[in-house]
Structures are given as C-alpha cells and as structure tokens.
C-alpha cells in the first residue's frame, strides 16, 4: 500500500480572543501523519491538544498556517467541499462515545454512510464488516444502553472508520474506561490504523499514548518534542536490558 | 525476587526434580528472570538445611533428586505470600535527586530536562506496549510482568508531569536560593515511614 500523508499541519497557529484576553492555543505547529500511522498527542491541560485535534479535523480554522487533508489544502476548498471531505474521509471518537441512543450498534455505524447517500442495505453490510473486525458481530443488534463502556467505544471506532475514511481523530477515547477496556480500545485503534487509516489520538495518559507509533508532546501550544521509533522490544526484558 | 519462595511455590504443587524447577520457574515468570542451575541447587540445599524441603534420590542436591515441600515449608510459603511488600522508597531515587539538583544548577532549562526524561520513559513504555501487543492469550504471566513495568514507568511520567506543573506555578527563583530546604525534605519524608 502506498504510504500517503493523510493530514498535514504547516505552521498552524490558533489565537482565541484579542487584546488582553488573547489566548495563543497553538503556535506554529507542524505535524504530518501518514496513512497507517497512529500518532498520540500528549500534553497537560491547556497545552492545545484539543484545539490541534479540532483543527486537524476541520471543525475549526487556524488563525494562520495551512491544513492539508490527503493533499488538499483546506483553505482552497469551498464550504461544501470541506463538509464532504469531512463526512467521507474523517471519523471522530470522543471520550463519551456520542452514540445515538435510539439506534442499534450497526445502525449507529452505518449512519455516516447513509447520511452520505449510500443505500441502507449497502451501508449496513459495510457496518457489519467493520463491527466484525472489532469483534462486535454479536453486539450489532444491541442498543447503546445495552453495551459496556468498552463496547460502546469500539462501536464508536467502527463508526469512525466505516467506508472510505482515511483519518481517525480521537479525543481522550479511553478517558471513561477502566485500564483493560482502555487497552482493548487502543488495540483496536492501532489495528484500524495499521489497516491503512491515519490516526491522531489526544490523551494525557502515557499508557494509552504508548500504543501509538509516535508520541508528540505539546506544551503551551507548541510541539516541543516527539518520540523516535525504536528498533524493537527484544532487549527489553533481558537482564539489565532496560538501562 | 525471592528464588527461595518461588521454588517453595512450585514444590507446593507436588514433588519435582531440580532441572524441572528451573524450567518451570522461568516459564512462570514469563522468562523474565533467567535462573542458572547452580542458583537452583544452592537454594534447594539451603531450603533442605532449614527443614523447608526434603529430598529423595542418589544423595546431595544432584539432578536425580526429587524434592518435596515439608509442612514447615508450606507454612513459610503462606507467610511470605501474605507479607506486604516493602513500600518504603529507596533511600535515593535517581531521577528525583537529578531534578532537585537541577533546580539549583544555573542555566538548566528545567522544563526541557523534565521533557527529555519524559520522552525517554514514554519510549520505554512504547516498547513494552509493542511487546504486550504480541503476547498471546496463554502468556498471562508475561502480561502481568509487562503491565507491572508499564504502571511503574507511568508513575514516574506522572510524577514528571506533576513536577512540571508545580514548578511552572513557582515564581522565578535564582539558582542557589534557599539552600536549607533539602535536609528538611529528607527529615520529613523519613518521618512518614517511622
């Protein structure tokens, strides 16, 4: 599979308010995420994590700098084109799942496709396929209030990757879950990304961030550091290997 | 890690040979703690001397001997399992010392220093997580060991995060100020464990 840059932020800054109340949420941020890569963004509260995610997800516009989604410069797209790009290429996962209570798991997952004009039967089949990949076939006909937190979040991930989505954005996706459910969710996110989707997950939890291929650290709106990929875990558990 | 008690635990399942004990010890601890045969036999000899195990075979602690746990050994094992681990911190935590020292060294960019350590630790966590992602369902011992390492390192990352936030709130301080605070820290912490 060709490795392509799914999202790119170039010198992105975001300022809220003006004058004495001015807040610089992001300062000259450069970030690019390839298809097949899961990137975690870590940083303390107020470091700009969520702003970065909403700008990468085209839900908000930067004050300056460029955002490119699959090579398309957002600023050059019409409002409608931008909305279509958002609908077709991006999926969002939130801490509190945001599933529609009146729809079953499979109906929730199929919804973005149906809203985009895909026939119900085709959309449901695509939804079932994603649910199967996330081990949720048995839960497909259940309503959100019949699912555990971990299952709900996995349904939300299925909804975020169904169809031709290339970019998955998650804001503290394990924040409401216990350790093992959180681990399952991160495992699934990583799995979805390694299937070709680019993922950006915002978290303050180092254990959850450690599921990412790369961890980017934000501080006061700036990217201050990132992890470098390691050769592998072989040396880890050897005696004296983790020095 | 108490090899002595690990061997007693393996013998609590039934009589075993020395080599068998070594193999089982390694597989049960996710092969994280390799053990040489010499360590096994020396420990078995001491356990026998202390009346915690008995051996039967060609004499000595050789490979043809079968070892059995005694009632005293079972008692010792049960007591060890229920003894809380020592949670008193080590007398010198290297990273804490480095940060305390850095606060006094002129020209050190503390947030940058904390971030350097944070990155190193998160990278180590990524490696453990990669290892965890490859563990099969049957390897529960290895999962437990990896989880324990991840929680241990995460705690240090959280300490760095808290230190970062706490130092950010401080008014700017010139290096070398307040030299009397360090001994007080030592005395107060020691008081908690008295």
UniProtKB/TrEMBL annotation, chain A:
ABC transporter domain: residues covered: 7-240
Superkingdom to which the source organism belongs: Bacteria
Record's keyword annotation contains Transport: yes
Protein name as annotated: Macrolide ABC transporter ATP-binding protein
Pfam families xref list: ABC_tran (PF00005)
Presence of the UniProt keyword Lipoprotein in the record: no
Gene Ontology molecular-function annotations: ATP binding; ATP hydrolysis activity; transmembrane transporter activity
Keyword terms: ATP-binding, Nucleotide-binding, Transport
SMART domains xrefs: AAA
GO cellular component term, pick one: plasma membrane
Classification lineage: Bacteria, Bacillati, Actinomycetota, Actinomycetes, Micromonosporales
Automatic annotation (TrEMBL), chain B:
Keyword annotations from UniProtKB, A to Z: Coiled coil
Residue ranges annotated for the Transcription regulator PadR C-terminal domain, each copy included: 92-167
InterPro entries: Tscrpt_reg_PadR_C, Tscrpt_reg_PadR_N, WH-like_DNA-bd_sf, WH_DNA-bd_sf
Domain Transcription regulator PadR N-terminal: 7-78
Highest taxon in the source lineage: Bacteria
PANTHER family: TRANSCRIPTION REGULATOR, PADR-LIKE FAMILY (PTHR43252:SF2), TRANSCRIPTIONAL REGULATOR YQJI (PTHR43252)
Listed name of the protein: Transcriptional regulator
Organism name: Phytohabitans suffuscus
């Amino acid at each position: 599979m060709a490795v392509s840059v799914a999202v790119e932020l170039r010198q992105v800054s975001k300022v809220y308010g003006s004058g004495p109340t001015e807040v610089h949420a992001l300062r000259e941020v450069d970030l690019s995420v390839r298809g097949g890569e899961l990137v975690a963004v870590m940083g303390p509260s107020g470091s700009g994590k969520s702003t970065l995610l909403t700008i990468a997800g085209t839900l908000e516009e930067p004050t300056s700098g460029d955002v490119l989604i699959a090579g398309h410069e957002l600023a050059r797209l019409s409002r409608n084109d931008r909305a279509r790009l958002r609908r077709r290429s991006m999926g969002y996962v939130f801490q509190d799942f945001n599933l529609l209570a009146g729809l079953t798991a499979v109906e929730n997952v199929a919804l973005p496709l149906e809203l985009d004009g895909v026939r119900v039967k085709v959309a449901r089949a695509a939804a079932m396929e994603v649910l199967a990949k996330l081990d949720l076939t048995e839960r497909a006909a259940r309503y959100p209030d019949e699912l555990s937190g971990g299952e709900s979040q996995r349904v939300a991930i299925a909804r975020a990757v169904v169809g031709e989505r290339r970019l998955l954005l998650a804001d503290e996706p394990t924040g409401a879950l216990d350790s093992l459910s959180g681990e399952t969710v991160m495992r699934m996110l990583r799995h979805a990304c390694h299937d070709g989707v680019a993922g950006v997950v915002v978290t303050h939890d180092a254990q959850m961030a450690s599921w990412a291929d790369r961890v980017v650290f934000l501080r006061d709106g700036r990217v201050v550091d990132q992890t470098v990929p390691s050769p592998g875990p072989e040396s880890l558990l050897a005696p004296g290997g983790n020095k | 890690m108490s090899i002595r008690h690990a061997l007693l635990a393996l013998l609590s399942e039934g009589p075993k040979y020395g080599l068998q004990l070594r193999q089982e010890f390694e597989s049960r601890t996710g092969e994280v703690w390799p053990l040489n045969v010499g360590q096994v036999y020396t420990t078995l000899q001491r356990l026998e001397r202390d009346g915690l195990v008995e051996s039967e075979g060609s004499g000595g602690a050789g490979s043809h001997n079968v070892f059995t746990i005694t009632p005293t050994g079972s008692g010792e094992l049960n007591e060890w399992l229920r003894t809380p681990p020592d949670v008193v911190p080590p007398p010198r935590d290297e990273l804490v010392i480095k940060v305390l020292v850095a606060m006094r060294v002129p020209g050190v960019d503390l947030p940058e220093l904390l971030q350097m350590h944070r990155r190193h630790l998160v990278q180590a966590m990524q490696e453990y997580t990669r290892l965890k992602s490859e563990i099969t369902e049957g390897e529960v011992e290895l999962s437990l060991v990896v989880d324990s390492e991840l929680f241990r390192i995460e705690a240090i990352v959280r300490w760095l995060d808290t230190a970062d936030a706490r130092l950010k709130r401080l008014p700017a301080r010139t290096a070398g100020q307040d030299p009397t605070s360090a001994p007080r820290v030592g005395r107060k912490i020691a008081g908690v464990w008295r």
